[in-house]
Amino acid sequence: MAGNGVDTFAAVAVGDGTTVEARRGAEVAWRAELPGTGGPLAVGGALLLATSAVSTGTEVRGEPGGLVIALDAAPGAPRWRLALGTSEWAVIAAIAAAPDGSSVVGGTFSGTLRAADKVVSSAGRADGFVARLTPTGGVAWLERMGGEDADGIGGVALRGDRVAIAGTFAAGADLLGFPLVVFDERSPFGDAFVAELDGDGARVWAQTFGGRLDDAIAGVAIDDAGRVAIAATARATVHVGAQDQSGGSDLTARGASDGLVAWWSPTGVAGAALLLGGADADGLRGITAVGERIVVAGYFAGKLELGAHALTAGGGDDAFVAAFASDGHVVAAWQAGGDGREEVTALAAVPGGFIAGVSHTAAAALDGVALPAPADPGGGAALVVRGLP
């Protein structure tokens, strides 16, 4: 899901491939077919950057391998494509683009990963990767992070020469030679990290956060003030602060899991952090920055309080989108709910607001707008475009 203020773009599974659709209001402006299973999208100037997971036997090595395809955002014509091939497997988790068409892509891989003439190898079962791509599809640099266990990058953000990444890691992992410290070395579960790289791919700062149970990253964003924010799902008690655990906050989930939103300054100093959830299993699926505000999307069951907004789920899990100021204050909130299950599948910024993709299994209401039950309970989908107050 992506948008540029004129068109909105979505990747939709069709048979064994993926269709990228551009909509201008209610009208379809163009469609383009991609191989494999479509992944995240990003708009960079005149380019729409699409990602896909493809299997061996195509142009990409790996089971699956990753593919980045640049399309002209106006007519949808192809411009270039880049294979992220691997001796084992690679999955692209996130992509972010700059106005000049350059981009950053991140994800997880195992084995030896090649992007153009850049090569990295995993140190264990799975490592994270991040690559900076030029406007013409060249690879400026490719870096890995991780250790002997399962590690990965789940979010990337780009603003000028600043690259923010976030992901999960186990004991013994490092980022460009910088050890990532786990909350409890005796715990078999992973923690999370957030870091900034410069325009050449060098580490500027890194911080870790987590607790004694697994934590999951939903994404990372950089706001107009240069702050870095993450969205995650946390269980039990999670510590958010400096990597050495000095200062910061210990936050305890009220249910089986809660959503986590946290901010760091441009120099890596921890700022506000808060949990979103109730007595059930709740969490976050995405994050984006709109001006100096952060917008997150997630799911909840039962009741959820977001500042002055009290939400009650319908028959199954409901979805929500919420906008926050940098001090953690809730600016606005929107709910997607009904008798079935609703989920925000993608979230992206557009000028002055955001666009979200929502799937639903039964009749639902989306910010007060009724959505009819889909003919196929697994096939309901809607696009939401909203501005921020």
Strand order of the largest sheet: 5-6-7-8-11-12
- Tell me the β content: over 45%
**What's the shape?**
globular
Q: Supply the helix-strand structural class.
A: mainly beta
What Rg is obtained from the alpha carbons, in whole angstroms? 20 Å
Return the average pLDDT rounded to an integer.
Answer: 92
The count of helical stretches stands at 0
Through-space gap between termini: 22 Å
Largest sheet: 6 strands, antiparallel
Could you name the ranges where pLDDT drops below 50 across 5 or more consecutive residues? none
Q: What do you see in this structure?
A:
This protein is an all-beta fold and 389 residues long. The chain has a domain at 292-389. Helices cover 0% and strands 62% of the residues. The protein is built from no helices and 37 strands. The protein has strands at 2-3, 8-14, 17-24, 27-35, 37-44, 47-54, 65-72, 78-86, 89-97, 103-110, 112-115, 118-121, 127-133, 139-146, 152-159, 162-169, 174-175, 178-179, 191-197, 203-211, 216-222, 228-234, 237-240, 249-252, 258-264, 270-276, 283-290, 293-300, 303-306, 309-312, 318-324, 330-338, 342-350, 353-360, 364-366, 369-371, 380-387. The protein has a six-stranded antiparallel beta sheet with strand order 5-6-7-8-11-12, with no helix packed on it. Strands 9-10-13-14-17-18 form a six-stranded antiparallel beta sheet, with no helix packed on it. The two termini are 22 Å apart. The model has no long low-confidence stretch (mean pLDDT 92).
